[in-house]
Structures are given as C-alpha cells and as structure tokens.
Amino acid sequence: MASGEDDDPIIEEIDVYLAKSLSENLYLLQYPVRPSTMNYDDVNHLAAKIKPKQQRLELEMAMDTMSPNYCRSKGEQIALNVDGTTYDEGNTYAVKMMDKQTFSSIQATTNTSRYAAAIFRKGELHITPLNGILQMRPSFSYLDKADNKTREREAEREGGDSSQDEAEEDAKAITVRFARPESEQARQRRIQSYEFIQKKHAEEPWVHLRYHGLRDSRSEHEKQYLYCQSVDASQNSELVKTPKEYLAMLMPPQAEEKVVQVAGPSNVLSMAQLRTLPLAEQVKTLMKNVKIMPFANLMGLLALGTDSTAVLRCIQQVALLVQGNWVVKSDVLYPKNTCSAHSGVPAEVLCRGRDFVMWRFTMVRSVMRKEVTNIIKLPPEDVKEFLEHVAVPRVNRGWEFVLPTDHEFNKKHPDIAHRQNMLWMGIQSKLEKVFNFSIEDFMPKNSPQPDAVHISGEQRLKMAQERAQANQSSLKKELAAKRGISREEPMDTTPHVNGSVNGGLDHANGTGDAPSDPASSPELQHFVNTIFRKHFVLTLSEFKRLFGLHVASRPAGEVVVPSVSDFMLQNAILQNQCRQIHVPFPAQTKLEADEQKVFCMWNTGDDSDKLRHVLFELFSKNYRIKRALLLTKLSQEVGDIPKTDVDRLLKECCISSSGHWYLRGTCPS
C-alpha cells in the first residue's frame, strides 16, 4: 500500500442498493416558515390533493381553536368576511370560525436527479430517487374570497333595479366579426404568455389523496417499498467504476444550476465586473462611460495598489490630454463603420468634428456653439453631443470646459504633457487642411496681440546689440568646436559593444561644452532624449522638423533655446546616448544632405540595445538590407531571437520597400 493510504484506512464496506418502487411518487416536503422542532406530525390533516404534472400539492390542516394562543374573535371575524352571514354547504368555514389553514407547495428545484432518500438496515444502504422537492407555505386564498364577497355586496347595493332596466332595453343589432388567421409569431407569443400558462395549469385536474399519519399501518406498509425488493446478487450488477468516475456520478457538473447574471442597462457600469477585466479594458471602459476625468479620479476608481505607470501607458491609448484632464478619444466613442444616432453621419466625419471641439478647448476655456457649427458643418444635435461630453453651458459665455485645469498633473508628468502637446500639433495640422482654417482665425480681433508691446527706440537698440553679441559668440564657439572635433576624431577611444570597432558609426558623446552652450540646455537635452526614445532612428531633417513643432507649441513669448544651428542640434543629439550612422548611400541617391545624416538611439538600458547595435552595424555597411541577412547576423552575435522581437526591431527602426529594409527617412521616393 502507498504511504498516503496508510493514513486513511478502510473501516467498513457497505452495500448500496437502488430501490425504484416509489421513485415516481416520492416527494420531500419542506416547511421553511416553521422551525424543525414544531412539526405537523400530530396535527389533524383534513384533506390533501395534488396535480402530478405540475407537482403542485395542497394540504388542509386543522387549527387548535381551544389553544390559549388562538384569538377567537379574530377567527370569527375572518370567517364572517369569507363566508358572510348566510349558511351554505360551500362555505369555507362551517363552524363560523377559522378552524383550518391551507398549505400550498412550490418547487424547490426543477432537477432532482442528484437527490434521493436513503434508509440504512443491517449493513445495507437503500436509496430511492426523489420525484420532487416541495416547499409547503401557508396559503391565503381565503383573503381573495373575502374580497370577492365584499365586491358582491357592493354590487348588490349599487345595482338596484338593474335587472328590470335590462329587460326594458330595446333590441340591438349584433355585428358578427371573424378573427383573422393567427400567425406563427403571434401563436408563440400567446403560448408563452402568463395568461396561457395559467390556463394550462388550471386545466390539469386535482387528484385527491388520503393522508396517513406517521404511525399508521398503511404508512408502515408503504415504507417497506423504500427497500430494494430484490437483493439477489445475480440480479444486481456490481459497480465497476473507478473512484474518479464514481465521484463524478455522485456529484455531476452543476451546469444547469449556474446563476445567470442578469444583463443590466447599457449605461450602468458594475465596478465588481469591471475589476475582473484587464487593466487596459478597465481604463477604456471607464473613459468610454465617463468621457472626461482627472488622472487622480481615474486612479481612485481602479483597484487599490494599481501601478500608476501602467495606467498612464493605458490611458494614452484611449484618451487625450485637454487642460490637464483626460478626455476619451473620438474613435473610441465612434468606432469605424458606425454612424450618428441623431443624424446618421458616418463615424469618420463625427471624429473630425469632435476632435475640433476638443482642440479648441486646449486653447480656451469657453467656446461658442455657433462658431463650432459654422466650421465643422455638422447637424446641431451632433455638435451639442460633442460639447456635452466636455463642457457645460454658461449664460452669455457659451460652453465652458467642465473641469478646472489640472496644473498638478502637468507639473508631475511634464514628459506626458509634452507628448500630448505634440499630438495636438499634429491634429491641428490635419484639422486645418480638412476645415480650411488657420490659427489666426481664432485670435481676438479687438485685443492686442501678445507681441504687440510698445518698445522705445533705446530699448530696441539695446536688444539689437545683445542679439548681435550673442550671434557673434555662438559663431565663434561653433568654429572652435569644429576645429576641436577635426583634431580629436583620429584619437577616438570610446569603448564599443563586444569590444568591436564600428568604423561606420560616429562614437562622439559630446565635447564637454560649457553650460552656456545652447546644445547643453536642459530643455533641448530633454527634448532629444524624449524624441529618440520614441523614434530610435531620425534623420537630421526629420529631427529639425520635430524640433520646430516643439518650439512652435510653446507659449507665446517663451524662448526655448536661443538661435540653435544645425551643428548645435547635432551636438545635442550626440550628448544623449545617441550616435550617427554613416550610411553608405549610392552616388546617384536623390536624398537631401540633411536626410543623409542619420542618428540613432544607441543606449536605452534595456535588452533590445544589443539587437539595435547589430542592425545599425549592418546599415553602416549598406544603405539597405535583407531580412535574412539580419537574422543571420543576430544569430551569430546574440543567439536565437524570437520572431516577435525581430519584427518589433524592424518596425521601430526601419521601413520596407521592394523587398528591402531601409532606415526610417532614408528610403528613396
């Protein structure tokens, strides 16, 4: 025997027999409103009847009217209300007193295949399957009879000579109408109706029964049928089941008793069900229902201990930042291939219109509905819906943004605020083309421009002299830096990955410029680090374009970096863990000079750095590569790499054209 079986030895073996004599007529009666210590065994049962198909049972039991707990006056009042003052054989209470009560059954369960009654005798266990489990509860049908009696009395008093009036009525013509043929759908609705079901139940006749007490001889006789009538071993096959199969037979899956969750209204969100979803789905569902929310409120709705960094990553997929608050994206509210519930306008048009409304609120606190409608040219119902998502109407002020500006979030997460600002710049450029407007159209005509400030002649002269001195000093530094780099290039001893020397890569990491150098300004350094961690590979032309958008997005009058040249931008790039890839372009290439200067993010601190190093080395030898060459080089330098990692590497740094892969921005048109 196994060691586990020694701890649980078999004490006794019991034979189990299945008795079927009473299986079709055996019911378990429960009395849920009565304690188990107060049973009805000794109560006089006056009548019993059953409807077998419905498993509906009614029992009439006598009440002890001589008990000190019985209120005689109340019993007489109930009998008077039910039967009235006249004596009739059909009266409910013959003794003018409530001396009995009726118990009516309801089914405790519709599936009794897992329930049986068992009886043990002489080392044998006999079980009989139950046909039904019924819960017996007091019936108050006598109250309905009392109400009917009351209505009859009132009708008699109000009727008067109604029978005589009816006799004197003139004959009236009768219109005969024929019912139209019943359709199949109408017939199904009629069959499933409550009235039809009640009618079918009423059609089944009652079967009257005779009650026998617990100690009655007939009860003892019927009790013998609970034992299996044939215990011959030749007629009872032995159970040849494994323990696992036997347990499955005893406790079958409860699929039929699973609780079906009721589907709530579409506008009701269950927080218990919400927290069973993945984090990304939780954020999307919340934003789709709430439309606009500060980040602090979003964290409060999520489970305690949720990582805020993960939430920030998820929220940027489904929402945009407007005045420090997160507003759900238009394509989340209006998915593709859908249309407006008000006007039937396609989702693509709705998204453009709503993006314009959100963009306006990134600039001002209040907008006028008429101004928006004149530009996006959408029905008033749709425009009102856009505004109701993020604003509230104010008297003489149009629609005001519903939440205050969350300056705290912008200060705590400047990188995200900057990224969202760049996204809005891209959205603005698209909206200007679609709706044919410019940013100057929204500047107040009567208010002075930000730069329209009166400056005296002396101040202008002083500012011109300062600009000339700054330009002269920056030019000197640029020339000195060029001479310094040309002298230091042959002495480059920067260590390389795996100890190899990559002749095609520029390994300069900065020249230690003084803090006054614009290339070392924190603003420019932060921009370079942020943009290269997002794009990984940029040409100088693309970097200059993105930097120009960044400068244009800053508030009016704020100077980001004073007069930065192309050389200073390159120097700033090389100071942020970036390197230049000297791609050997063909002589006949049509790329501009700035497009042939390619820079890459060299070190990010994660495992993907090694993969990018191998990729950049290949591009330092050829301006285009094949995927097979990359896979071979990766297997030699790094080892086996999952296909998903290779796909992500190519997607982040390259574009495909005519079967070859090019670094981003270097593919010939």
UniProtKB/TrEMBL annotation:
Give the InterPro entries listed for this entry.
RNA_pol_III_Rpc5 (IPR006886), RPC5_C (IPR045576)
Signal peptide span per the entry? none
Domain DNA-directed RNA polymerase III subunit RPC5 C-terminal, by residue range, is 444-668
Q: Where is the composition biased (Basic and acidic residues)?
A: 146-160, 475-490
Annotated region (Disordered), positions in chain: 146-183, 467-522
Note the PANTHER family from the entry: DNA-DIRECTED RNA POLYMERASE III SUBUNIT RPC5, DNA-DIRECTED RNA POLYMERASES III 80 KDA POLYPEPTIDE RNA POLYMERASE III SUBUNIT 5
Q: What is this protein called?
A: DNA-directed RNA polymerase III subunit RPC5 C-terminal domain-containing protein
- Its source organism is Knipowitschia caucasica
